[in-house]
Amino acid sequence: MPDIEPLRSAAPLREFVKDLAGLLARKPEEAAILRDGGALLGRLVARDDWLPESCAQPHPQRYSQYLLHADSAQRFSVVSFVWGPGQRTPVHDHTVWGLIGMLRGAEYSQPFHRAPDGTLAQAGPAVRLSPGQVEAVSPRVGDIHQVRNAYEDRVSISIHVYGANIGAVRRAVYEADGTRKPFISGYSNDFLPNIWDLSKTS
Amino acid sequence: MPDIEPLRSAAPLREFVKDLAGLLARKPEEAAILRDGGALLGRLVARDDWLPESCAQPHPQRYSQYLLHADSAQRFSVVSFVWGPGQRTPVHDHTVWGLIGMLRGAEYSQPFHRAPDGTLAQAGPAVRLSPGQVEAVSPRVGDIHQVRNAYEDRVSISIHVYGANIGAVRRAVYEADGTRKPFISGYSNDFLPNIWDLSKTS
Ligand SMILES: [Fe+3]
Ligand SMILES: [Fe+3]
Ligand SMILES: [Mg+2]
């Protein structure tokens, strides 16, 4: 089994999962999910003492996306994105609502607009996220972006929440000329941290 | 990270989790949970080709309980119990509803009745579970039992579902004279199998 130490305390993540499930059970509109879920995520990333080491490891060649929790009904998933120095995503969409909370380091998110003729153009300047800050994406508020580590010499980590089992969602990446290519991201981890054992963690 | 191969197909477990979440979302009475959830569990344990190897490993000294999935709101948890040859639980209770589906090998469940004066007595004969069979426990239908591997020379595995995050529930084990001792079981695994990556598993 893994040679990585278990969690000291998964309580903040467990509380976040519980609170978000409670929010979604009330079947709010997307705007309320982004507002109230964003506040919950902001509280989660206001502290950086709970992310399991196993889900904070950079990969030398590419960014990593570690599933932390998937909801039973796949109403949502929580993922840790780990950017090695200088790493970036392709331009991509999500097709579902998403919330991005900066935990460690910093990242830039560059929004794009896709014109009816298929061409891509930057939609305003890149947004810089610092620890504790939260950003939203969705087909309604802007769904296409490219994300990169703000640093060339250190790891950055953001916590993402999506309105689906995001690793299994059929979505797209885009080339510079706007060409759309089907994309299913999957996850980097074959094992999730056990955040549910209150006999070991507080 | 773990040196154990990822799942070939987690689809049956993923479907079970989704279907049980759907059942519980309708807020049924306990009797309906045991009946309809029991049918879902029966379907899950009717085949034995989906349990991750990491959650099928016996421990030489004691039975193992591997968390497979915890619901976001801790409405339920799914656990694989692995009995090494001749291993058994203490006499114990659950305090919440539970369903036990036999996956591999066989086990005996001996029910107990606790009299108002605190003494324990066997409540009828032990029930033998064979692969595909499902049994229920709860404070309503009988909550105290002792479970043991039916075999002295091989591993048996049953899949348990409980109406809570069972590893964190404050419950009890009982000595032969009926003495009640507080008990929180925890889990044997620090990492859960990632059953949500449909890009790797079908
Ligand atoms: Fe994104
Ligand atoms: Fe039991
Ligand atoms: Mg869940």
UniProtKB/TrEMBL annotation, chains A, B:
**Which domain of life does the UniProt lineage start with?**
Bacteria
Species of origin: Orrella dioscoreae
Q: Could you tell me the keywords of this UniProt record?
A: Dioxygenase, Iron, Metal-binding, Oxidoreductase
Q: What is the lineage of its organism?
A: Bacteria, Pseudomonadati, Pseudomonadota, Betaproteobacteria, Burkholderiales
Instruction: Offer an example of a GO molecular function term for this protein.
Output: cysteine dioxygenase activity
The text of the family note is:
Belongs to the cysteine dioxygenase family.
EC class, as a word, reads oxidoreductase
List the protein's name: Cysteine dioxygenase
Q: Where does Fe cation bind?
A: 92, 94, 145
The EC number(s) attached to this protein equal 1.13.11.20
Signal peptide per UniProt: none
